[in-house]
Amino acid sequence: MIKVAIVGFGLSATVFHIPFVVHSPYFSLIAISTSRLEAVRNSFSGIEVYQQSEQMITESDADLIIITSPNYTHYPLAKLALESGKHVLIEKPMTESSEQALKLTELARQKSLVLSVYHNRRWDGDFLTLQQVIESGKLGDIRVFNSNIDRFRPVVEGRWLEQQGEASGVFYDLGSHLIDQVLHLFGAPQALTANCTILRENSSVTDYFQVMLHYDNMEVVLKSSPFSASPNLRFQLQGEQGNYLKYGLDPQEQQLRDGVALTAPAFGIEPPVNYGIKYLVGPDTEEQQAIKIETLAGCYSEYYAKLALAIKSNAKVPVSALEGARVIKVIELALQSSALGKRVNVDLSEFHSV
Q1: Rounded to an integer, what distance in angstroms lies between the CA atom of residue 186 and that of residue 206?
Q2: Cβ atoms within 10 A of the Cβ of 248, count?
Q3: Residue 201, CB half-sphere, CA atoms under 13 Å: how many?
Q4: Which ranges in the chain are annotated with CATH 3.30.360.10?
Q5: Model-level pTM?
Q6: What is the CA angle 135-348-164, rounded to 5?
Q7: Would the pLDDT of 168 be above 90?
Q8: What's the sign of the alpha-carbon dihedral 325, 331, 332, 334?
Q9: Contact partners, residue 234, CB within 8 Å, separation at least 6
Q10: Fewer C-beta neighbours within 10 Å, C or N terminus of the chain?
Q11: Residue 157's pLDDT is what?
């Protein structure tokens, strides 16, 4: 068993990590660090509870440290964990800067330790389905791709993610997911143009973004708005032989928030009303076919299964440190583009190896 210690006991830890650690046959939860000591003791028995994350990292017998604390803590805590000889999983975004991310990547390499970033939305059912649609070739060469996570949150709620500081705001939060998915699908763009701004009253951090990624013969647009009360258009693929449209969001997050068991038959399963539609036009006719595509089951647990294999058997890391680092670099370039009001070139060559 891989012994796990978790930094933090907030939403990220309790919803996105602890259920999978506890359910997995490969992991054993042995410690948590948090200021909410009694909340942990009331939820779990037989585990160590620390008030100081640094003490837990250096003194616990954990093999793997999972970091779910605020973004500005990711780098110092991950560095300490790696220096202490422990594998590390960092909640996205990986770090405040790509420079920090590359330093952690090199440290993990020197120590022969696993360092991974929790870009779990690669295992959203809709994203898995999207990959399947692209790989089938039925749409022909893809020319336009739109990816959105819009919400209706017109009022600032005061969460730490909405407080001013490095690596805060919706672009680091949701934008990191959208960027990781696109890089996973298509690799690095040649250039990008971005608008990252504040639209809500009393907001002090970015709450709206639109990023255009410019590829050779393909355009990608990533967007998030806090003012969308209508159904979320999650994906739109436009190819030379047809389109694919997908509304709605993967159900796993809401199911985890609602306490649905990972073993429940409905876990990760999307209702048919949210299935995407593939639109095809034949080469010799303008007649359009509309085909409903059943959404594949979402499976965040697959990430943890792959992480266990990486730690125990030196298998491929499900989301590598370099993959997490390149997301941060694209975020930095997008913020630069937004600040300058112009297109900037994208060079991710330093993120292929360290």
Answers
A1: 26
A2: 17
A3: 2
A4: 121-299+332-340
A5: 0.95
A6: 105
A7: no
A8: positive
A9: 126, 147, 148, 149, 246, 247, 248, 249
A10: N
A11: 80
